[in-house]
Amino acid sequence: MRKQVVGKWPADVTERLDLVFADAPFPAEGKSDVEGIFDPPYYEWFQFDKNFTEYRNFDKCLNYIEELMIKEGPFDGLMGFSQGSILSGALPGLQEQGLALTRVPKIKYLIIIGGAKFQSPTVAEKAYANKIKCPSVHFLGDTDFLKTHGEKLIESCVDPFIIRHPKGHTVPRLDEKSLEIMLRFLDKIEKETALEHSSTDVDEKELCM
Questions:
Q1: Residue spans per domain, the chain
Q2: Which residues contact 15 (CB under 8 A, 6 or more apart)?
Q3: Is 106 exposed, middle or buried (0-12, 13-18, 19+ CB in 10 A)?
Q4: What pLDDT score was predicted for residue 102?
Q5: Class for domain 2-208, per CATH?
Q6: How far apart are CA 157 and CA 56, in angstroms?
Q7: Could you point out which of 40, 63, 111, 141 has its C-alpha 20 to 30 Å from the C-alpha of 178?
Q8: What is the pLDDT of residues 91-144, one digit of tens each?
Q9: 159: Cα within 13 Å, side-chain hemisphere
Q10: How far is CA 58 from CA 43, 61, 143, in A?
């Protein structure tokens, strides 16, 4: 995702973010959903069935992320694409329930690109038990196969920022309108993070999944 974000997004955005790009822990099984978007090799955060209701290695994935955040952090926010965005959207709720990321600071904001909600009731009932209160910005592609599911994730968030684009399941460039929305989102999280840290000199750090 580094090439798609750093290469496509203007410095007005990327220079305000301290991005740490993480590889998922497991080699992808079968054809990857991001084939043709990113260069191989492909990795995945966990495995799932065709209905996206049964998961394998999910607990190992959560432990992996927490260890990564301890080692490379602290992190203020999460940015995810595809499977990484589904995971990112669930982590604030799981953290709130004490089921994930219990040894790291509270997630303060989300950047969701091509996201969706978990379909498994065993995960969804915990991850979305309450509205996602931290600031979030959601990228929705008009032809993204996850668009409908992305809309449902947005419904679970409090006052989300929404950036719509004409592309599919990809990391889009920022046109004039989407850049304006993104800059307003950054203004919001910088203000809130600065207040929480009691300082205006805050270096937000984001884990990209």
A1: 2-208
A2: none
A3: exposed
A4: 97
A5: alpha beta
A6: 26
A7: 40
A8: 999 999 999 999 999 999 999 999 999 999 999 999 999 999 999 999 999 999
A9: 8
A10: 14, 5, 28
